[in-house]
Amino acid sequence: MDSIKIAHLSKSFGQQAVLTDINLTIEPQTIYGLLGRNGAGKSTLFNIISDRIPATSGEVVIEGQNNVNNDRVLNRIYLMGERNLYPSRMRVSDIFQTTAALYGRMDMDLVHQLSSQFGLNIRTRFAKLSTGYRSILKLIIGLAVDVDYVFFDEPTLGLDANHRELFYSALMDSYAKRPRTFVISTHLIEEIANMVERVLVLQEHHITIDETTEKVLNKGYSITGPTADVTAYTAGLNVIGHDQLGNLRVDYVYGQLNGSRPIPDTVSISHIDLQKLFVNLTSQEVATFEN
Ligand SMILES: Nc1ncnc2c1ncn2[C@@H]1O[C@H](COP(=O)(O)OP(=O)(O)OP(=O)(O)O)[C@@H](O)[C@H]1O
């Protein structure tokens, strides 16, 4: 099994640049979280990888071959996108059958098991499904179709908390049985933080972070204490944001702390969660991304 290599990929819509010179390797058998603020270009990236829209320049190479109009390699990937591609009068059961025929391989036992667990009536016509059940239909396909790369674009849109939990556990079960790559784009960062092995952050048209989740979390710190002590301690560090409450200040740092600098008794240091880290990294006008 090969990787997906994205080289010098750029995409503009008219005058608006969305992706600029993206270089990225998506490895086999890895669960990724793709994080980016609204409008950052996550769906655009997914749509180009799956050849639903053309890139302005650059290329996507899947298992050694350029993806454009290449059914052989496009058949190795599945994109669960935002768009609803199915005819409104089509029944759920027919959508499953059609997709199975298109890809050649689908775990129909899993389809029926998940349909029953999610309470999805397979006799229903697509048009009659609620937003949540449209997501459920598409995520069942994403879990059951036998491909090497699955791209989930906002997979839990409209799902209640119970169904989101069910999806996460079904994904982990499926991954354990047949390891393959899942790239999950979501704004519910903390819900996927424990599942994802690598974190990708898309910001300012670029991939600014491509690291293991463990490394990313190890580099995120909050430094809390009286303002003067905190700012003295964090001077020269990569401070990505701060909170202020009266004289109490929290500086958020991404990267190395200064090991030789003594920590004042008044200051406490702890790691921060992925969501807090992401919010601070992407709330700046111009962020810096030190290693
Ligand atoms: N077909 C299109 N024509 C013109 N502009 C587009 C088109 N598709 C996307 N865009 C623009 O490209 C930018 C990126 O959109 P995209 O949907 O890829 O972002 P996203 O990161 O998936 O956002 P969100 O998290 O809000 O879903 C947005 O400014 C959007 O308006």
From TrEMBL:
It comes from the Bacteria. InterPro entries: AAA+_ATPase, ABC_transporter-like_ATP-bd, P-loop_NTPase. Keywords: ATP-binding, Nucleotide-binding. GO terms for molecular function: ATP binding; ATP hydrolysis activity. PROSITE patterns: ABC_TRANSPORTER_2. Pfam families: ABC_tran. Residues 4-229 form the ABC transporter domain. PANTHER family: ABC TRANSPORTER, ATP-BINDING PROTEIN (PTHR43158:SF5), SKFA PEPTIDE EXPORT ATP-BINDING PROTEIN SKFE (PTHR43158). This is ATP-binding cassette domain-containing protein. It comes from Secundilactobacillus folii.
